[in-house]
């Protein structure tokens, strides 16, 4: 296809393509853009398109360009209609150290001491027993009860994060 045939194609098919696209999408500006994009694609492939088949090429290109535009707008529309609250955790407070501090305050003094010594400081049961003047079995019982209380107060980790 040469330059003269390209210009003839524009004259012969631009209005028909515009009406075809406009009927489908009902937006004049978008229809003009699609027609222009189609002629731009024809210009890029001018050497590969036969002048006798240019009408078919243009309408097919315009149709596919229109479908791509509709799909892009659909995705954009879907994204804009997303409720951010469905995907956010604003209902949950996620400062873990503050939540743990509050939970620890609710323990008795002995439970808090043994939990802090065991889980925060890493002392063994024997060492905690010596520090707190408790028996080793008492330490284990206090730690068990404190952890149970913390678990009931905090709940699952998923509810915090």
UniProtKB/TrEMBL annotation:
Spell out the Gene3D superfamilies in the cross-references. 1.10.1740.10, Winged helix-like DNA-binding domain superfamily/Winged helix DNA-binding domain (1.10.10.10)
Domain annotation RNA polymerase sigma-70 region: ranges:
11-75
Q: Name one Pfam family in it.
A: Sigma70_r2
Q: Where is the RNA polymerase sigma factor 70 region 4 type domain?
A: 98-150
Instruction: Give yes or no: UniProt keyword Cell inner membrane.
Output: no
GO terms (molecular function) for this protein are: DNA binding; sigma factor activity
Q: What biological process terms from GO does the record include?
A: DNA-templated transcription initiation
Q: What are the UniProt keywords, alphabetically?
A: DNA-binding, Sigma factor, Transcription, Transcription regulation
Q: Say which domain of life the source belongs to.
A: Bacteria
What is the organism field in this record? Labilibaculum antarcticum
Describe the family membership recorded for this protein in Swiss-Prot or TrEMBL.
Belongs to the sigma-70 factor family. ECF subfamily.
Record-given protein name:
RNA polymerase subunit sigma-24
